[in-house]
Write a structure and sequence with these properties.
With 442 residues, the protein is an all-alpha fold. The protein has a single domain, classed as Proton glutamate symport protein, CATH 1.10.3860.10. It contains 23 helices and no strands. Helix 6 packs across helix 19 and helix 17 packs antiparallel against helix 21. The N terminus and C terminus are likely disordered.
Length: 442
C-alpha cells in the first residue's frame, strides 16, 4: 500500500498539472458552480444530481470492506490485545476534549459576533421542521448503543453502518489474533484483499471530477446565490469560526505533536476538495485512511480512530450546533442566560453522538438541542433550513480535518507514529530507496 502511494506521488510530480486529481476536482467545482448559477434549469435535472450521488455511492460501496480489512489486519498483526483497548480509550478521551473546544468556540463567537441580531426575516414555518423535531425526540442513548450491534453481519455490511462494521471487525480481528499461526493464511488473505480494494478506490477516484461537478452544479442550481441572501452573515461567521478552530485549536495540537497544520492540510488537499464538491466527509474516508498510514500512523490506530471519529469526533458539527442555536435565539429575540448556554454545550455534546449515521443528522441534533434549551426556539430552524446545504460543506471539511489530526495525535500518544514517514510525507520528500521499491513493485 505504501509503495503504491509513493509511486502515485512520484508520477504526480512528473505529470502535467491538468492531470493532477486535485486540480481536476477544483476546476470541476468552479465549473459546476458557474453552470448552476447561469443555467439552473439544466443544473437541477435528474442526471446532473445523479453524477454527484453516483460518485458518493461508489465510494460508500467500498467503505465497509476497507474498514473491515484495515481493522482486522491491524489487530491480527499485533501481539498485545490490551493495546487495542488502550487506543480506543485514548481516542475517546481526545474526542471529548476537542469536541468541547469546538462547542465552546461556537458559543464564544456567537456571543461576540451575534449574527442573528436584527435579522429581518425571523418568521418561521414550524411545519417545515416538524419531521426533524420528531426524529430528535425519538433519539435515545440506549437505542444508539443497541444500534451499534448489528442484527446480522451481512446486514451491517449491506447498510454500510460504520460503527456496526467496526464492532464486527474488532471481534474478528481478536479472533484471528487468538488463532496465532493457524490464522496466517487468513491474515494474508485480508491483507491482499485490502490492497485490491484500494485498487478499486484508485479506479473510482478517476470519476471524482465528474461527481464534484454534478454535485456543485445541482446545489447552486437548486438553492442558488439568492438562497444566501441576508443569511450570508451566518454562513461567513460559521466558515470563519471553523477556519479559526482548524488553524488555532488543531494547529496548536499539531504543533505539540511536532508538525504543521498547514502542511497537513496540503497533504490531504485531494480529500478536502472531494468533500467540498460532494458535501460528504464519508466520500473521502477510504483515501484518508490510506494516506494516514503512509503518513506514519500505525494500521491499528488508523483502523480504530478514523471510523470511530466519524461518529464521535464531529468538530464541524459541534461548532454548527452551538453557533446555529445562538443565531436562532438572537433572530427570534430570545436572550439566553449563561445557564442556558451551558445547557446548549452539554446537550449538544450528547445529541451530536446520538444522531450519527442518520440522514440530516446536523439538523436532527439541532432540533434536539433547541427542544431542550427552549421549545419555542424549534420553529426558528426554518430560518436556516434553506442554507443548510452550504453549511454542510464546511461541517464536512472540518470533520475530515479533525479526524485526520486525531489519528496522528493518538498514534503519537501511543508511541506508534513513524516520525521519518511523517516528515517525508509532509515535506514532500521521497527516499530514493523507497522510490526504487515503488518502481520495482509496479
Amino acid at each position: 500500500m505504501a509503495s503504491a502511494g509513493i509511486s502515485s506521488a512520484a508520477s504526480t510530480a512528473k505529470q502535467p498539472f491538468y492531470k493532477v486529481l486535485y486540480i481536476q476536482v477544483l476546476f470541476a467545482i468552479v465549473l459546476g458552480a458557474i453552470v448552476g448559477w447561469l443555467f439552473p434549469a439544466f443544473a437541477t435535472n435528474d442526471w446532473m444530481k445523479a453524477m454527484g450521488d453516483g460518485f458518493v455511492k461508489l465510494i460508500k460501496m467500498v467503505v465497509a470492506p476497507i474498514i473491515f480489512c484495515t481493522v482486522v489486519s491491524g489487530i491480527a498483526h499485533i501481539q498485545d490485545a490490551r493495546s487495542v483497548g488502550r487506543v480506543g480509550i485514548k481516542a475517546l478521551v481526545y474526542f471529548e476534549i476537542v469536541s468541547t473546544f469546538a462547542l465552546a468556540l461556537g458559543l464564544i463567537v456567537g456571543n461576540i459576533v451575534q449574527p442573528g441580531k436584527g435579522f429581518s426575516n425571523a418568521g418561521a414555518d414550524a411545519t417545515k421542521v416538524a419531521g426533524y423535531l420528531k426524529q430528535s425526540t425519538e433519539m435515545k442513548s440506549v437505542d444508539f448503543v443497541l444500534n451499534i450491534i448489528p442484527d446480522s453481519v451481512v446486514g451491517a455490511f449491506a447498510k454500510g453502518d460504520i460503527l456496526q462494521v467496526l464492532l464486527f471487525s474488532i471481534l474478528f480481528g481478536f479472533a484471528l489474533m487468538a488463532l496465532g499461526e493457524r490464522g496466517k493464511t487468513m491474515r494474508s488473505f485480508v491483507d491482499d484483499a485490502a490492497h485490491a480494494i484500494f485498487g478499486v478506490i484508485a479506479i473510482v477516484m478517476k470519476a471524482a471530477p465528474f461527481g464534484a461537478f454534478g454535485a456543485m452544479a445541482y446545489t447552486i442550481g437548486k438553492f442558488g446565490p439568492q438562497a444566501l441572501g441576508n443569511l450570508a452573515g451566518l454562513i461567513a461567521t460559521f466558515y470563519i469560526t471553523a477556519f479559526l478552530f482548524i488553524v488555532v485549536v488543531l494547529g496548536i495540537i499539531a504543533r505539540i505533536v511536532g508538525f504543521s497544520i498547514f502542511k497537513f492540510i496540503r497533504y490531504i488537499k485531494d480529500e478536502l476538495l472531494i468533500v467540498l464538491g460532494t458535501s460528504s466527509s464519508e466520500s473521502a474516508l477510504p483515501q484518508l485512511m490510506e494516506k494516514l498510514e503512509r503518513l506514519g500512523c500505525s494500521k491499528p490506530v488508523v483502523g480504530l480512530v478514523v471510523p470511530t471519529g466519524y461518529s464521535f469526533n464531529l468538530d464541524g458539527t459541534n461548532i454548527y450546533m452551538t453557533l446555529a442555536t445562538l443565531f436562532i435565539a438572537q433572530a427570534l429575540g430570545f436572550d439566553l442566560s449563561a445557564s442556558q448556554q451551558i445547557t446548549i454545550l452539554l446537550v449538544a455534546m450528547l445529541t451530536s453522538k446520538g444522531a450519527s449515521g442518520i440522514t440530516g443528522a446536523g439538523f436532527i441534533t439541532l432540533a434536539g438541542t433547541l427542544a431542550v434549551v427552549d421549545p419555542r426556539l424549534v420553529p426558528g430552524m426554518a430560518i436556516v433550513l434553506g442554507i443548510d446545504k452550504f453549511m454542510s460543506e464546511c461541517r464536512a471539511l472540518t470533520n475530515l480535518t479533525g479526524n485526520g489530526i486525531a489519528c496522528v495525535v493518538v498514534s503519537w500518544w501511543e508511541g506508534e507514529l513513524d516520525r521519518d514517514k511523517l516528515n517525508k510525507a509532509l515535506d514532500r520528500t521521497i527516499d530514493p530507496s523507497d522510490l526504487e521499491t515503488a518502481v520495482t513493485t509496479g
